[in-house]
Write a structure and sequence with these properties.
The protein is an all-alpha fold. The chain contains eleven helices and no strands.
């Protein structure tokens, strides 16, 4: 179990994790169970940093936390977001063309624009949480986003035989992942109450809309679409927390 967790940390973050040997396909599949825990680790680090800097200017704190957030993830999911944005626009509704564009290593104007928009939404959201003295709620944002990835792999066909997520899709443990998803949702609702309800609702809505779009366009998911889902879920969940905090 510890090794599976470390594999998840190594894949999802830039934290210094060293494995004695490369993960097998089975171990990669098992690591998916620990995605929410990695998300909680990231969220706790960000929320802790925000709490330490709580007396500083909210805009400055937001910029610093966003930079740390991006550095900790290595912009892994932002890359998927850009690829999907380019593919959805440039694919013109064609499945084969959409998949081909997603494999292109270059980012087009829509890909760059999507990254800018998501980062702006995150920046604004963090700043609002700082102003509302609710920065600790930031901890649940990466948690719910990585839970959404779990649910995507659990319920959506993987369409590439050689993609980054192919081994995970083929070797995931459905029972373990289902338990992890349920525990995450109930844990968030139990500890954050009204704000958590807003956050879970936002993450669930993003998941439903994104999954529907994936199924309609390419008939399933890929590593890039999973990354795009994570980024969109983080941005929307963060904004939902802002509205919940403002209305409290």
């Amino acid at each position: 179990m510890i090794r599976a967790f470390l594999i998840a940390v190594q894949f999802l973050t830039t934290l210094p994790v060293t494995l004695k040997r490369p993960p097998t396909e089975v171990e990669s599949g098992r690591s998916l169970t620990f995605y929410p825990l990695v998300g909680l680790l990231l969220g706790t680090m960000l929320a802790g940093g925000g709490w330490i800097l709580r007396q500083e200017n909210p805009l400055l704190v937001s910029a610093l936390l966003l930079a740390v957030w991006t550095a900790l993830t290595g912009a892994l999911h932002l890359d998927g977001l850009a690829d999907c944005a380019d593919a959805w626009v440039g694919g013109r509704g064609d499945r084969a063309r959409t998949l081909a564009i997603m494999k292109d290593v270059c980012s087009g104007p829509m890909g760059v624009t999507s990254i800018v928009i998501v980062l702006l939404m995150k920046f604004a959201g963090i700043a609002v949480l700082c102003e509302q003295h609710a920065i600790l709620q930031l901890a649940i944002v990466p948690l719910l986003a990585r839970t959404a990835i779990q649910l995507l792999f659990l319920t959506t066909p993987y369409v590439r035989a050689d993609g980054l997520g192919a081994a995970m899709a083929a070797n995931l443990r459905r029972g373990n992942i289902l338990v992890a998803v349920v525990l995450t949702v109930f844990g968030v609702l139990a500890f954050t109450q009204c704000a958590g309800l807003w956050a879970v609702s936002a993450a669930a809505s993003v998941f439903i809309l994104c999954q529907h779009s994936m199924l309609a366009r390419i008939g399933g998911t890929t590593g890039d679409t999973a990354g795009a889902l994570a980024e969109i879920a983080e941005a929307c969940t963060l904004l939902a927390l802002c509205f919940a905090t403002h209305g409290a």
